[in-house]
């Protein structure tokens, strides 16, 4: 008896089918059922700990583990109703769940990523064209749109969208190289179904229609771009379209060059350990980190650390020398995602990621390392910490540095 064909779509919506008919339809009764299954699918390369799933979907709720077990029980029951097609979908190990990576099934996300990797390594030619055309056809919309905004969806969505757009734009260039404006216009129209605010697709499509003598269609497409706010008013005329396209190409080249320079600058290796900066920079970074932490439910610790001299009035330069020792300790002890600044002549302020589980504070490691060094010169290290809680979001206002063109 042939194995049932399992097909899972996550781009543009979520569906599970066996032999062309909808499966696991009972999931529609609960968003949690769908999301837990989606999470396991997107992480099928690894075993996902129970604690990770519970924290992701139930936070700190006291019944998180019990709720997870109930969801997994319901998913197993739904799979059992499929008559054997999904019997082996789940692997369980001690403390972990995993979507069975050996289960024969088609998953559009993994197929797109596979094709993108192959296309990136392939030379120009028919084979690469076929891969990229398949990518364009596979991408039916954003990843899991019902879960848009979830941190576990967004990063993957950005990567998938970038792979799709790279394939689409490369195919557009190939059409121009082959002198095939009809195929180019069709590509642009398909691309606009996924992104109706892409100025380049309006311009490329309209110019391709003009090249075929389809002037009225070209003008209609350009007017659609104007109405969407993607093209300047009047861009539908033949000369204006060509001029707009030239400006766009120049701007995109400049932006890509800027991205290369900026990426190289921000990825420069500036050492290990905490990031040491001025107090003003510390406050700016901390505001952003706290906003991000609030969205991802990542705990942070705000810390003040003071060096207390062994005598009431230490000699000039003595405290400064020990502060330098403390800087070295922070660099070798804390993580690269932690931020620190000098707050006063004998005090540091830090923003640290809290431990992933209950255990020693990062500051305990810092203090142990500080006292291990003879150069601490008899100074005592005292610290105070708290978990800051961002207040309610307020309406955005423009910063002075942005209004003045700085920053």
* Average pLDDT metric: 87
Number of strands: 12
Helix content: 40-55%
Q: Mind summarizing the main beta sheet?
A: 5 strands, mixed
Tally of contiguous helical segments: 14
Distance separating the two termini: 65 Å
What portion of residues belong to β-strands? 5-15%
Helix/sheet category? alpha+beta
Shape: flat
What is the chain-wise order of helices and strands?
Answer: EEEHEHHEEEHHHHHHHEHEHEEHEH
Strand order of the largest sheet: 8-10-11-9-12
Radius of gyration: 28 Å
Assembly type of the shown chains?
A: single chain
Low-confidence stretches: 398-407
Structure description:
- This protein has 407 residues and is α+β, with helices and mostly antiparallel strands.
- Helices cover 52% and strands 13% of the residues.
- It contains 14 helices and twelve strands.
- The protein has helices at 31-42, 50-58, 64-80, 108-121, 126-138, 151-178, 181-194, 199-211, 215-227, 238-266, 279-296, 318-333, 362-372, 400-403, and strands spanning 6-9, 15-18, 21-22, 48-49, 90-93, 96-99, 106-107, 275-277, 300-308, 339-344, 347-353, 380-386.
- The strands form three sheets. The protein has a five-stranded mixed sheet with strand order 8-10-11-9-12, sandwiched between helices. It has a four-stranded mixed sheet with strand order 3-2-1-7.
- Helix 8 (199-211) packs antiparallel against helix 10.
- The radius of gyration is 28 Å and the shape is flat.
Brief synopsis:
The protein is of the alpha+beta class. It is built from 14 helices and 12 strands. It has a 5-stranded mixed sheet, sandwiched between helices. A 4-stranded mixed sheet has the order 3-2-1-7. A 3-stranded antiparallel sheet has the order 4-6-5.
């Amino acid at each position: 008896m042939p194995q049932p064909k399992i097909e899972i779509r996550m781009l543009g919506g979520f569906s599970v089918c066996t032999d062309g008919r909808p499966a696991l339809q009972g999931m529609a009764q609960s968003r949690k059922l769908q999301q837990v299954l989606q999470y396991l699918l997107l992480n099928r390369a690894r075993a996902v700990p129970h604690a990770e799933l519970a924290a992701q979907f139930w936070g700190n709720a006291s019944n998180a583990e019990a709720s997870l077990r109930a969801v997994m029980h319901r998913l197993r029951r739904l799979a059992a109703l499929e008559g054997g097609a999904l019997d082996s979908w789940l692997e369980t190990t001690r403390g972990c769940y995993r979507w069975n990576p050996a289960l024969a099934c088609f998953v559009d996300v993994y197929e797109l990523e596979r094709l993108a990797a192959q296309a990136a390594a392939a030379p120009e030619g028919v084979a690469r064209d076929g891969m990229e055309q398949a990518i364009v056809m596979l991408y039916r919309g954003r990843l899991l749109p019902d879960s848009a905004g979830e941190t576990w969806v967004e990063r993957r969505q950005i990567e998938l969208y970038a792979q799709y757009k790279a394939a689409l734009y490369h195919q557009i260039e190939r059409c121009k190289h082959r002198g095939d404006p009809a195929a180019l216009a069709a590509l642009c129209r398909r691309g606009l179904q996924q992104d109706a605010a892409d100025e380049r697709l309006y311009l490329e499509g309209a110019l391709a229609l003009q090249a075929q003598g389809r002037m009225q269609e070209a003008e209609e497409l350009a007017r659609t771009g104007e109405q969407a706010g993607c093209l300047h008013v009047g861009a539908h005329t033949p000369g204006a379209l060509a001029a707009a396209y030239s400006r766009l190409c120049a701007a995109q080249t400049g932006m890509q060059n800027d991205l290369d320079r900026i990426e190289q600058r921000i990825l420069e290796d500036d050492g290990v350990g905490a990031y040491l900066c001025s107090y003003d920079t510390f406050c700016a970074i901390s505001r952003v980190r706290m906003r991000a932490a609030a969205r991802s439910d990542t705990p942070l610790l705000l810390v003040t650390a003071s060096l207390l001299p062994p005598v009431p009035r230490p000699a000039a330069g003595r405290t400064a020398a020990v502060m330098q020792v403390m800087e070295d300790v922070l660099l070798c002890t804390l993580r690269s995602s932690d931020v620190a600044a000098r707050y006063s002549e004998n005090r540091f302020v830090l923003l640290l990621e809290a431990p992933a589980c209950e255990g020693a504070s990062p500051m305990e490691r810092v203090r142990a390392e500080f006292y291990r060094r003879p150069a601490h010169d008899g100074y005592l290290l005292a610290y105070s910490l708290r978990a800051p809680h961002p207040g309610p979001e307020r309406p955005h206002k423009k910063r002075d540095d942005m209004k003045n063109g700085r920053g």
